Amino acid sequence: MIMETIAVIGEWLRLATTHQVIGKKAHDARLAALCSVENLALLTFNISDFRRFGILAVSPGELWRFRTEHVVYRILVKFGGRQLFSARVDWPGWTGAS
User: Fold this and answer.
1) Residue ranges of the domains in the chain?
2) pTM of the prediction?
3) 96 or 33: which carries more pLDDT confidence?
4) CA 86/CA 80 separation, integer angstroms
5) Whole-angstrom distance, CA of residue 82 vs CA of residue 94
C-alpha cells in the first residue's frame, strides 16, 4: 500500500499553487503529487490532464514502449477523483508486446 505522507501533502500544495489548480483538477494534482514523491509512473487514459505536473503519465496503449527484463508496477485505480485501489505487481521476465 502506498501511504499519503506529509511529503505528499506538501508536494500537492506546491503543485496546486504552481499550476493554479482549482476545482476537480485538485484530485489530479493530489495523484500527481503521490506519483512525484513515490517516483511512480501513472497509467491513465487522460495523459493530457497530468502533463503539466511533470510526472510520467502513460496510456495503456503505450505500455509496449517500456521493454525491460524486470518490471515492478505500482498500480493506482482512480474513479471520479477518488483512489479506489493500489497495488504493487512484481513481474519478472516481462518484455512487453512484440
Assistant:
1) 6-92
2) 0.66
3) 33
4) 15
5) 30
